[in-house]
Amino acid sequence: MPKKTIKHSARIDFQLKVEGQEIPARLYREFRTNVRASIGKTAAILRLPVHLSKAEQDRQVKWFTSWVAQRVSQSKALSDHFEPRTYRDGDILQVGERRYSLKLQWEDRKTHTGKLLPEGSILLKLSREDNGHSLSKNIQHLLSRIVAQDFLPAITQRVQELNQQHFQQPINGVHLKYNHSNWGSCSSAGNINLSTRLLFAPQEVIDYVIIHELAHRLEMNHSPRFWKLVSDAMPDYKDKEEWLKVNGSKLTF
Fold it and tell me: At what angle do helices 237-247 and 224-233 cross, to 10 degrees?
């Protein structure tokens, strides 16, 4: 159990040890009346009422640990899902039609850094102090930033093309971010934000998410009028939504 003072509605990240495997976990104290446990895309999640005593909270965390262990032991796919991804010098990262050769250098440093080399390789200078899930997560975010910079001009051009073709609305900017909570978003200021995880999807699926967000420039909701805009621009958009539901969890660095 993490030894921290928990505030109302605060989130605390910690690790559960399950048969020698570390499982990322999150604990939330919320204004709720029940206890809820779930397995999310990136962590096991426990939600507790804010009024619980320290002793009752510890009891629930103990139960939660057993519950997660049972779920993981019953599903190899779940166990594999939470296994930290490993990266090796010389690995090839395929993103769409672009291939990047990874060059890893381990150094006595506090932080990680990386850059795209002229020949298309990605050089990562990694801290020897990092390991496990933390290392895997940090490398994924680092790769995402580097690849985003490489793809941003082409993605921006595609957003402008689809906007001109279907919507003709002002666009303030296009941004690529390593986002797990959604595939894209559109702000009232006209910023189109897309998850870098989309770069692993087929072009027509990327186009669907772009069209979806561009439609929000006219309808900042999911009303029938919004879906009419999406359908007019891409009549088979439901096929692309289904593809993301089936394959979305596989799109990652």
Answer: 100
